[in-house]
Amino acid sequence: MKKLKKSIFLTFICGLICFISCASKIVSEPSSKLSLGTHFKDLFYLGAAINENTILGLDPKSATIVNSEYNTISPENSLKWMFIQPSPNKFNFKAADKYVEMGLKNNMYIVGHALVWHNQLADFMQNLENSAETRAHVENHINTLVSRYKGKIDAWDVVNEAFEEDGSLRASVFYKNMGKNYIEEVFRKTEKVDPDVDLIYNDYNLYKPKKRAAVLEMVKKFKANGTKINGVGVQAHWDLKSPSIEEIEQIILDVHAEGVHVSFTELDISVLPNPWEMVGAEVTQNFSQFEGDPKMNPYPNGLPDNIQEKLAKRYQEIFNVFVKHSDKINRVTFWGVMDKHSWLNDWPIKGRTNYPLLFDRNYNPKPAYKSVLEVNTDQQN
Asked: Residue 213 belongs to a domain with what CATH number?
């Protein structure tokens, strides 16, 4: 009898140890990995802009990150005019079709970027002087793209970067040939082709009061005259200090006050110094005089731990604001998947090594990734 009791006791102890061990493993090793998109899924879409290597399957590691971490995508270049219609009525849909296919396959919120933009424009559009000809090309471009992806693309960045820093309209070929109301005209043309798609105006430096005021005045006018506009896209090409958290919060509040949602469309955080004369994200800026200057490229061999920590803290502070005002935000999109492919390695000074995103050059998550996942999603207003 004693041997039997001892045997039962030993069996019980072994079972208890096994249970504790298994329970501990369950706690420390979750059965399903929490992704960025899942973490914020009840608040806003979270995604990345993807390049053609990712779209065409030439960078499967990048595609794996996108498909596992995000629920919205934007095309870095594949839908821009110079790539998709390089000559009159000659369209190249190869990458664009694959892009949309990738989004549909993974049940993502798919963004079209961008219909009308003065940069990365086809050569034949650059020097047009005839109003009727310009309008014909614009209408054909919008009709072709928007109708092809109707019911597939969820939102279009309809017009991109149309305002100067002082709030005046940029003297683009569209403004010169179509007049001061061309933005409204383009929005109306887009809505006519696809009445159900979200229509976004997209721009940088909206933390600056004059520029933001001009954009908001346009939104107010559209709302008053019945021109459809769903949101304002805020290009979040920021750095470790600027804009301030208060300035970011003010953008959200002001845009929402005009009755449209906010999208942070191009989020990345530069860790490198930039020339003080630099203006926002204007891609034509040239600072070749700084090429090769070690002061402008201080981390060519890797990011020091203290800067990694600053980047992680900065991202966490920004996402705390996003969560706080998530009722006003539709989506947040990183401009790129990993550091190696970021446009900031070559802009505004070529040949630099920047570290602005959540994944490093080896496709591994950085401390900033962990800091974003640690953001409390229960703090919204």
From this structure: 3.20.20.80
Give the number of domains in the chain: 1
In one-letter notation, the amino acid at residue 149 is Y
Q: Taking the CA atoms of 28, 29, 35 and 38 in sequence, report the sign of the dihedral they define.
A: negative
Return the pLDDT at 26. 36
- Which residue range(s) make up the domain with 249? 41-373
Q: Per the structure block, which two tokens stand in for 148? A: 């092809």
Residue pair 370/83 in contact by the 8 Å Cβ criterion = no
For residue 1 the two structure tokens come to 């009898």
Active-site annotation holder among 52, 69, 191, 266: 266
DSSP bridge partners of 232: 201, 262
Q: Are 276 and 270 in contact (CB under 8 A)?
A: no
Whether residue 25 is contained in a domain is answered as no
pLDDT band at 287 (very low <50, low <70, confident <90, very high): confident
Q: What is the pLDDT of residue 275?
A: 72
Q: Is residue 3 part of a domain?
A: no
For residue 280, name the pLDDT band (cuts at 50, 70, 90): low
pLDDT band at 20; cut points 50, 70, 90: very low
What whole-number distance in Å separates Cα of residue 325 and Cα of residue 380? 6
On the question of pLDDT at 277 being above 60, the answer is no
pTM: 0.89
Q: Crossing angle for the helix pair 209-225 and 245-257, nearest 10 degrees?
A: 20
Active-site choice (161, 291, 317, 374): 161
Instruction: Tell me, yes or no, if 161 is annotated catalytic.
Output: yes
Q: Report which of 109, 118, 116, 81 is spatially closest to residue 96, judged by C-alpha positions.
A: 81
Torsion of CA 291, 293, 294, 297, to 10 degrees: -40
* 266 carries an active-site annotation: yes
